[in-house]
Amino acid sequence: MPFYLVWPDASRMTAEGFGKVADIPAVFNTDWAYQEAPSKFIRERALRTYLPRNARMSVEVLTMASKQVFGDSICNFLEWCEFRNHDWRLLDYNTHILQGYQKEMSAGSFSASHRGLAPATVNLRVQEACNFLEWASIRKLRGGFEVPTILITKHRQNPMLSHGHKLQEIAVRQGAARPNPASLHMPSRLSVQRWLDCVRIEKGVTKHLMAELVINTAVRREEAVQWRTHTLPENKNDWMIKGGEVAVQVEYGAKGPKHYNKRGDLVGPQRTVFLPLELAEKIHTYRETKRLKYFATYVKKGSTPEERNLRKKKIFKQLFLSDFTGEPVSSQTFYDAWTEATHIPYKGWSPHLGRHYWACNELLKQLDKQLAIVKHIDKAQIPIDWIRGNVQDSIFLRIRPQLGHIDEKTTERYVSWVAQQYHSGNMSDGFELALEE
Hints:
Blueprint: E1 3-6, H1 10-15, E2 26-29, H2 36-47, H3 64-83, H4 93-107, H5 119-138, E3 149-157, E4 165-173, E5 183-185, H6 189-203, H7 205-217, H8 221-225, E6 240-242, E7 245-250, E8 259-260, E9 266-267, E10 271-276, H9 277-288, H10 290-300, H11 305-312, H12 331-339, H13 351-371, H14 384-403, H15 408-424, E11 434-436
Antiparallel strand pairs: 1-2, 3-4, 5-11, 6-7, 7-10, 8-9
Helix pairs in contact: 3-5, 4-5, 6-7, 7-9, 7-13, 10-11, 13-14, 14-15
């Protein structure tokens, strides 16, 4: 039996005096029977009156996307219980969760595509199922439920420290699905340009510009979707230009603890992102011309004069409006445009990998600047320590601030990737090399 996540009418809930829970979904089954325990768990999870052991203490407000993910995970778990005729009140970790729910998702016997799900997806769903069962135990809705954990040591990113990180011991779920050794490829610039052309022709000007924004600045997909009309100052005299780039402040759609800014909007940690001047000019031109045209399309689509008048008064805060509807481009629509173009650089190409593409190209660019100082040198003979030192400097000073986050493993893989590029002697635009994710 399917289970559904149902979102309330926020305006009606607020008017009735339930504004505190107006943006929190509830769970129903296919017979439209309200699922009390799962819904209460999601509500307490969203209001932060219940914090799972793996919850980030710094997070004060859950985003709509987070509520959707947590809710969808609970629905999926309830469907598995129904499919296997299990009562969630009687499940134990090893027999049912580890050897049942997790194993079946990994093997593909419980997935819509009948293919094994990615370890990250499996771990997210299993963790949320465990959170629900632990909550149910605490609320006396079932017997005890314990999740065995192991301690691991990892580096915690901390920009306030001179070396950028410190060691931290954290508890992780025992038996979690291990990540696949999937490869991250760096496609040729020619292949990426061909893909961009397809996005423009097939998906429209707006999504093409959004794709350019990602691969030229490494902003996240949600950051591109939530890019505001004012993110790049509307008055060109206010642009902060340095070295052929324009500095802008990005906080909308940013990953990390959320807070309300001075505009009253829910945002993430702010960071400075640099746009190539040419791209900034494109965005400014789009804002002054195409965007106005697409908004006019939105107004004209009103079915009555009254509706069209109401639409004229509508103010979309997001910069990027659909060529076809005139409404803000959603995260899913942008992802579909990125991945469904006729030509794809390689299987699995995604906005997230577009961030790596920018980083790898940027590292090569920064190293070339350093090598320009040292003339008449065979790149294949450059000592690995020289490459490592310069790459790490570039990562710390350029890559990490732009990306907003980069872990130790990714740093080391960037170093290895660049070293292989130089030592192979293949520095043309046609490079393609696997970099483990």
